[in-house]
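Predict the assembly for these two chains.
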Amino acid sequence: MILGLTRSWSLAGYAIAVILILPLFALLVQATFPDEAVFSHLIDTVLPTYISNSLLLMLQVCLGSLVIAVPAAWLVARCDFPARRYFQWALLLPLAMPAYIVAYVYTDMLDYAGPVQRMLRQVFGWTSPQDYYFPDIRTLTGAAIMLSLVLFPYIYLLARTAFMEQSSSLLHASRIMGCSPWQSFWRLGLPMARPALAVGMALVAMETAADFATVSYFAVPTLTTAVYDTWLGYGSLSAAAKLSAIMLLVIFAMVGFERFARRKQELFQKQSRLTESDRYHLKGVKAWVSFSYCSLLIVLAFLLPFMVLAGYAIDYFDESWNSRFWQYSFNSLYIAAVVSFICVVLALLMMFIRRVSPRKSDILPSRLSSTGYAIPGTVLAIGVLVPLTYLDFAINDVYDYFDARGPGLLFTGSVFALIFAFCVRFVAISIGSIENSYKRISPSLDMASITMGQKPRQLLWRVHLPLLRKGIFAGALLVFIESMKELPAALLLRPIGFENLATHVFQFVSDEQLEHGALAAIVIVIVGLIPLIYLNRSLEQES
Amino acid sequence: MQRQGEFGMKSFKSLALLGLATVSSMGSMTATAAEDLTVYSYRQAFLVEPILEKFTQDTGINVNVVFAKDGIAERIAREGRLSPADVVLTSDFSRLMELVEKDLVVDVNSDTLNNNIPEQYRSPENDWYALTMRVRNVYSSKDRVGKLDLSYEDLASEEYRGKICTRSFKHPYNIALVASMIAHHGEAETKTWLEGVKANLARKPQGNDRAQVKAVKEGLCDIAIGNSYYFGKMMSDPKQKSWAEAVYINFPNQQNRGSHINVSGMALAKFAPNKDNAIKLMEFLSSDVAQKSYAEVNMEYPVKADVKPSEMVASWGDFKADSLPIFKLAENHQAAVKLLDEVKFDL
């Protein structure tokens, strides 16, 4: 937009992007290597089941989240009923819950040995599983319900915004023409929110594809678990890379769909917004139904699992409250802090270059780097290990050449691999956050600054940085949370002997004794709540 | 523009500074002394750590032990000549063989090891050693089934339709059992057997061995497949004692070839940086002290002939073990995995 940015700035942007998409590239190369017929064996036997499981799961989670989220979003955005103001942020709480923890808690409750079925048996006098039917929670549909419970807030958030931003003149017109609130929803609100819903569903599908822990706990084999098993079970990195490539194909198709939907969305957002008086004021039964619906969602998806978790944590407090707990917490926080710092710096650099570069193509680095978010952790782990292993050996070869003792596994043997993978996966979040902030800074400020003789570096440091700090902070915070929660990449890439809260908790989940890891799980959830407080504040300002 | 309580530039800068400090401290996170031993272990911490501590007390050699449920062989293979691993401990035989097949281990010449560990429990090439033995038992409900004298083959019989619980058959313990079936009956017959067992399952394979016994206690199924030591471990856990008390432990195939045996073991990593100390550790693990600890802490059968199993394990009675040489399991491992995929056992 503004002249005066030298080529070296652009090159720096490209260099960052190349490093960040290196894993993707390495993965595709690895996928072309021979795999001793492991892959063809998989195709002949279990691969079709894995693929259909993955697709079915994504479909069910998308539909499930949609059905849960849209009514809640409509109620909060367009109606008024008791406690609506609280619900508008409380409905986001489930985002802080890792799906596998919710899954564990519900399995405990709904299993044959759990309190629900025990009570039913007592009440009806049943004695064996043959006496009655009870749906098995450890199934594909069970996993879909669990994932929907924690992922629906993505759709809720986008749908709510879409409903609120729909033009008030259209709504008034529909009222004048005699539309009831229901008709207004079906004919106007829902169709106009379609692009936002598509974006939300794409996000939910991506998160579903990346889920490893829930499906692995429920023993539902999907492509994600297949990648893990093929790599570590069959010991075939190439076959695992081939599976990953299939998975990426599916995911990138979804991302393309999402981009397409988002482009269309821009068409109708430039009109007068709804005001408080445009809400439907619900009374009597309707108000209570709305209130109960939203409360039930929050109880099922957040409060109940949280209480159970808290109960476990209290029961096993003495055992869990030890130096290891502190070590794992420190590891989690440390990794998250480093990753969010690096992500923000990289994103800031790329977005700055894009903003002030005279070359249109300088948008490319940030776009390319953002693809990392779509790569599931399991898949990314392979992509990260391949080039880093190569690098490690290259460095040691150089030492050997000079007859010196090499540094050993500099990258793959340390937390570097982990941090690198997290950065690749989460830099998109900080890019998005800073991009949004940049939109609010008038270009005339840049021009003024240049006119006054500031160099690009000074423009970034003295003008943009102070104005961007909220976006930077929000971006860093979100990356921080995601890094705390990310499991499969941590599981596969941690240096041997390294545990953080997520891997520690998952180990107990897979051993069916989450009770012992409940304290650590609580920490993950509570840290995950911090951005919601922040988000809540900005929601309040909005309304 | 700036309101009270808002996020100010000052706090922003101090946060940024903090971030920078954290990043620059990265290098100091993973450092160990060069002469320390590094053990990669599939076996769980609670079991291995007390024994390794004893070793450090005796010899003054520090041991860094790291645990993983999966992927140790894959990791050592990738690390190649740069791998820090000295000794690998595995919880089952197939993983021991995986290390051998991938050429990740090296032979040890130690008279101590050869004296302590009987011939059938170590490699003829001296590149792996078993440390403990366990039986793949069949547990039966005390109330609904009673004590059983059955064979693994019987698990496929119609009599048990909808009554069996097991963990994933892709778990190494079950793969080894399938491999032994292939060794005795061939692939075709084993496939039919697997289909029969699958048809008898009360639920999709899930959870660990203990969870199956719990399911029997709750009445979900009558029969569970599980390793012998879990019975002892459940008996000594206040919460799980009632699970174990609801079942009998049965030793299958006593009328013919004997019960299927699996072993845990150890091997010396090919590129072990501290081979001498590593061998010292291996010798220690085969000694009376360590063998006794395995027997008492984990309720396993020690391989060293003159070390007795724990009192509780002994109380389960004598049994006949399958005399199939352990390496036969390894030969059929790959075939077992493929059969399991073919019959979609876990799906």
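The mean pLDDT of chain A is 87. Strands of chain A lie at 79-80, 280-281.
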